[in-house]
Description:
Four copies of one chain form a homotetramer.
Chain A: E1 3-11, E2 14-21, E3 30-38, H1 41-47, E4 64-70, E5 82-85, H2 95-98, E6 132-135, H3 138-141, E7 142-144, H4 151-154, H5 157-170, E8 178-182, H6 186-197, E9 202-206, H7 210-219, E10 223-225, H8 232-239, E11 245-250, H9 255-263, E12 265-273, E13 281-283, E14 296-299, H10 306-317, E15 327-332, H11 336-344, E16 352-356
Parallel strand pairs in A: 8-9, 8-11, 9-10, 11-12, 12-14, 15-16
Antiparallel strand pairs in A: 1-2, 3-4, 3-6, 3-16, 4-5, 5-7
Helix pairs in contact in A: 5-6, 5-10, 6-7
Keywords (chains A, B, C, D): Metal-binding, Oxidoreductase, Zinc
Protein name (chains A, B, C, D): Threonine dehydrogenase
Cofactor (chains A, B, C, D): Zn(2+)
Amino acid sequence: MPKMKAAVFVKKNRIVLEDKPIPEVGPLDALVRITTTTICGTDVHILKGEYPVAKGLTVGHEPVGIIEKLGSSVVGFSEGQRVIAGAITPSGHSFACLCGCASQDGPGSKHGFTATGGWKFGNIIDGCQAEYVLVPDAMANLGAVPDALSDEQVLMCPDIMSTGFSGAESGKVQIGDTVVVFALGPIGLCAVAGAKLKGATTIIGVDTLPARQEVARQLGASHIVDFRQGDPVAQIMALTDGRGVDVAIEALGTQTTFEAALRVLRPGGTLSSLGVYSTDLRIPLDAFAAGLGDLKIVTTLCPGGKERMRRLMEVISSGRVDLTPLVTHRYKLDDIEKAYELFANQRDGVMKVAITP
Amino acid sequence: MPKMKAAVFVKKNRIVLEDKPIPEVGPLDALVRITTTTICGTDVHILKGEYPVAKGLTVGHEPVGIIEKLGSSVVGFSEGQRVIAGAITPSGHSFACLCGCASQDGPGSKHGFTATGGWKFGNIIDGCQAEYVLVPDAMANLGAVPDALSDEQVLMCPDIMSTGFSGAESGKVQIGDTVVVFALGPIGLCAVAGAKLKGATTIIGVDTLPARQEVARQLGASHIVDFRQGDPVAQIMALTDGRGVDVAIEALGTQTTFEAALRVLRPGGTLSSLGVYSTDLRIPLDAFAAGLGDLKIVTTLCPGGKERMRRLMEVISSGRVDLTPLVTHRYKLDDIEKAYELFANQRDGVMKVAITP
Amino acid sequence: MPKMKAAVFVKKNRIVLEDKPIPEVGPLDALVRITTTTICGTDVHILKGEYPVAKGLTVGHEPVGIIEKLGSSVVGFSEGQRVIAGAITPSGHSFACLCGCASQDGPGSKHGFTATGGWKFGNIIDGCQAEYVLVPDAMANLGAVPDALSDEQVLMCPDIMSTGFSGAESGKVQIGDTVVVFALGPIGLCAVAGAKLKGATTIIGVDTLPARQEVARQLGASHIVDFRQGDPVAQIMALTDGRGVDVAIEALGTQTTFEAALRVLRPGGTLSSLGVYSTDLRIPLDAFAAGLGDLKIVTTLCPGGKERMRRLMEVISSGRVDLTPLVTHRYKLDDIEKAYELFANQRDGVMKVAITP
Amino acid sequence: MPKMKAAVFVKKNRIVLEDKPIPEVGPLDALVRITTTTICGTDVHILKGEYPVAKGLTVGHEPVGIIEKLGSSVVGFSEGQRVIAGAITPSGHSFACLCGCASQDGPGSKHGFTATGGWKFGNIIDGCQAEYVLVPDAMANLGAVPDALSDEQVLMCPDIMSTGFSGAESGKVQIGDTVVVFALGPIGLCAVAGAKLKGATTIIGVDTLPARQEVARQLGASHIVDFRQGDPVAQIMALTDGRGVDVAIEALGTQTTFEAALRVLRPGGTLSSLGVYSTDLRIPLDAFAAGLGDLKIVTTLCPGGKERMRRLMEVISSGRVDLTPLVTHRYKLDDIEKAYELFANQRDGVMKVAITP
């Protein structure tokens, strides 16, 4: 049985490169040889033991690669084709998928829903920080990469671009909206770009790191709020002349940002939450207008599927958004443990790390 | 200056009937002689000092009556016409109104939004527990009552019917949905009726009072959960065979019901909140799927305006919903203090009290 | 190779019962033994040669039956289970499916869309007027029938109930709407029921046959317009006191009904078209307000998939809609040629014919 | 009674500058002294007698100016303030306004709807090609112009920018969509800009004039189709590799463009129609997929009201769209007859003409 290298979760604070068998290809699967992948903040949660996964699982959920072998029932793709797959790989046939909620896919569950069930790679099945990854339900999930795009150009499509854009989409950003994005990590930066693509005309980014502020401006932020310069709520209310924002996108996952996002909404506004939280959340009575403010709080898990991937790659192809400035570091798969060390500690201004087997 | 009787907030625990001048009619106003009105749970909050209003304010926000006099700029109505007006009386011309958020109307505010600004009667202007009420922005707010409908038939349109239905509307109930309504007070009962009108096929009402359970069944509840018979979350999950509900409507305003509503949602479901809260709220991390469940929390303040009133009266006229069973008691305006005493203490199985000057 | 009986299109005006091999089961398929099926108006178009299908094709697209055999990759169902499948059987994994347009499914086409591509049974693959039918993409399409429901109770779910309801859904019927349905054949009758389920309060059915008018009233029509009693447009405008309707549902497929539907719309209204047309259509300039009336024309092909089937069966289970009165005649599969003769000529007040192998 | 100059429709082919009384200001009105206005294609239809208006009516519906006098009931604005008003001036209080259909405003009509009723200036009341214009329902319609914006920068907001953007909005353009715009006159050019603002990544403009093609590219068109180079349907299908477009925007008002727009739609696509038609329209059966293609045809009349104006000016202020290249010619009001002569004959590459009293 042929072997491959894979980054495997061993125990808390231990992700190591190991040899594992190259997976067998089931009838609906595709085996993809990874050419580029990356590390996500969620992988760091896994590393630190904050998000539980099975010991021995290969981590990683952002694959770019070449189809090595297609399952016997898969049509519409060919071996040798360059593809990506979303971090979320819905089956296409669960009740969740068929009612427009594909990220909560649960094909094997009793009612067809599983909370976060669409997120399989590096969570409930082996992921893509490896030489090969098995893509389930390949017909629904493989996205053919246009020849003109490089691996690094499409590297953000599987997760952070899809997630970030969905912050603006779920918030139903309209032409002429004022939008704030709390935290300008990779997902927040993509939320800035998404808000611009949806027609927002005032886009406020909140972060304190100059490099992130700079990329935010490139991607569409019209104003930057640095929370070290004073209360961000007060600064945002001042920037909007007391009006508040139409849509506040939370892209960090903390009580502080969640609450600030709620406090800067105009009456009738929407808090679009992307963060992964690790504590209970508190909704202050006043910030919630006692339930009478026509406020909305919406959460979104990264949309996946090949149509999503196609559209995101169209955005790249059209030149409307360029996310390559986010790739600040590059490592060989062999050095992935060093990449984790850098990324987990957010050293050297790292935003995203390209990993190549 | 002619006088009228009006129920006035004097101080905490004191609403009394007093003589006040009949108001002068401005160019955009209509003076309406009240023929029937009612007391809302919110009025009880005012009585108890839990919701602050100015001393001397006439309370009440659910008017049925006859147009006594129209402002000089008002066209499209005639004196002597029988009308209702919504509890919420948007101006029609604020930025809030023009961006589809009329209940947060703020025509005089800097940006055209004021949190809960559309609620004027018995909140920021004199209300309708009186012989006369002045309806602002009459052209946007007066709803002509069809001759065939009695005062009591339309008495719920201004507030609880509009609010209750909006719970189902904001929750975007679809044909075939499973919906739960937490608390079967008048608003919860109207939410049950609204869920039925929107096509829900399983409607679960949660309450413990037999009379309310009975009305809920009449209005469309297919199942009743009595929280004294055991944990309502467990009961609802059992009723739905473990699936959870598509939409959970909160119609009470407490942490307990809010949290239970969140816990019974299927992944991707919507918590549609109608309650007026009096404490901060807590979102448990697990019930929120750490922010990854595609869950939505939406709040709605009673929609107003004459188009809303027209549609609600159409619902009554068509015979699709009959809310007269909610009128359990009747008082003269002269006896309104007794009516408050009964209603505030929820004695004698009271649901709604009709007050007639 | 075992044989089965199947109703096969031979040539114009010839559908005959023939022996055909029982189909082989591919990995994603399910073989269903038909227990009840029916004939659709579209089948009559096929019979008359007005809609072309391949010679030798088994016709019929409304299956109720028992799973005889599951494909090797199919999970989540078991042999012996009673099921239905929609007339439209989307794959779940085409671009059309993944962008919310499953009825135009085109998994094998270059871009993943094929006009009407989701309609496979009795159109591009063998249908279900036979002893057995092969259901493609079984995981996305099989709908488990609750034990409490009879075959005849769910017989309308695969097509006419789904189509008729979609007329109201695509028209975005709101609480308090006035809706007209042109033609009260089986689909128009289901559109009436759908409009009621979505909250319409005035529902006008247009037809001339007393038996259909009677069923329309049972399903929710508040008014009937008989076009033999005078111009239906004038009658509808009179019924609505000159206002016009919010949503007009066309359920026949002719210039006359299409144009009348346009003419009775209020400004800003929606024409929701379900009919299968056989000629070019003309939009009169005045009826279209020269393009300035904020009018919408939307067309919908029967939604399919197992979630749709589940919801429709919920509607039946809940008792909210009973379509069994539509089954006016019953035939054995052996006598299907007689059933066609009756149905194609609309003799004996036939609405729907139940066929049992 | 003080006089002013105004461009008045006298008879077919005669619009002349005349002296008229400066209008009296009613309680809800604002008198605006025009500083800049322009001529619309619709004005040319009026000039040619193709669209009927009353003799003696002042034409023009695109005002920029200074508030000269406010009605006695108008609050929230001040005399001397620089403002625009939309071509469409909804009342804010009709049933049409209150059901989200403000352009069909009919405050004085029996049911509150009048087809195209929101279009008042230069249609049913005196327009703004004059020294002064009376703005009805001023509180709903005046849009304060930011100091930093010039008259010419906001001159397109009242009509063509609002109309053009609405083509993309009503078409529900999504991130990654392919959109075609038929005819690159001023409204088509704004539709291109609107499609870009909504996230389209492939935007195809169809026109034959090089100057318009050039501006279209500046505003976001990624491809140009010149119908003199061959059948535009074939060219568009080739450009999209046979897929067709998600949204086709018709911005001319002819059978040819309407039909071509329908023919290039992918299954499930939307034809968003902005043109003012002057003949009946024909829907070819094949282009309409016989009613089975999930196609939508939506028409939109220019959205008005002060919130719309505010948002459009935000787009200008943000620098996201610059429409000043459309102003190709400038005239004094005294020379408006010459401006009409130029514009009506589309001489000298004219796109829009700025008129200053």
